[in-house]
Amino acid sequence: MLAIIVVCLLLLLLSWGMYEVGRSSAGEMSAVPHNKLGGSYNMATCLQKKRAALCTQLAELTRQFQMIQAANDNLAKQTKLLSKENNRLKEELDFFEHVMAGNTKINSGISIHHFSLKKDINPGVYRYTVSLVQGGQRPKDFNGSLKFFVNLRQNDQTKTVLLANKNTKQNFNVNFKFYHRIEESFKVPPDSVVESMKVQVFEQNDAQAKLTQTVELSL
User: Fold this and answer.
1) Residue 163's closest CA among 128, 207, 111?
2) What's the mean pLDDT in 187-211?
3) Residue 211 gets which letter from DSSP?
């Protein structure tokens, strides 16, 4: 009986000790994850780091887009210039081919071979082209200038505006022997509608126009 009582007391002490150890371990386990979680993850810090990374990526993408846009703008300008030069060379080639074939007769002296006015795809922008030729035996270089007058309608009123050369702010100076071509554009206010255009050809040091021609707007 004494041995049984001693064994029961030992088992009771052992159970109490295991209970205390388990309770203290549970308390430590419940505290440790909170401390570790607080030290390894912070919502504000995480968002700040991700925001900085996204801002860096966005800045890089913006820079690349600006570079691509600038390259496209330069390419568009070069394409426009090449197209303009190609049209000029094509017209000159067709003209000289017709002259060599005898299909085009050139009068002696200066004359207007071609004059046209068209509306551009951009609002309020108009494009015009004029070609000058000079015939005769052994012609000298023609030195002179051109004046362009735009006939437009604005607020139900008809007006004539002298077109200024955007390069020199003066008349369009020309100097050639056989053939010369001008292709330019101009812009009018939104409330204006261009109806026609007139060109005058002046020889150097001559106040009287040598040639005058008016062209209607081509639809």
Assistant:
1) 128
2) 92
3) E
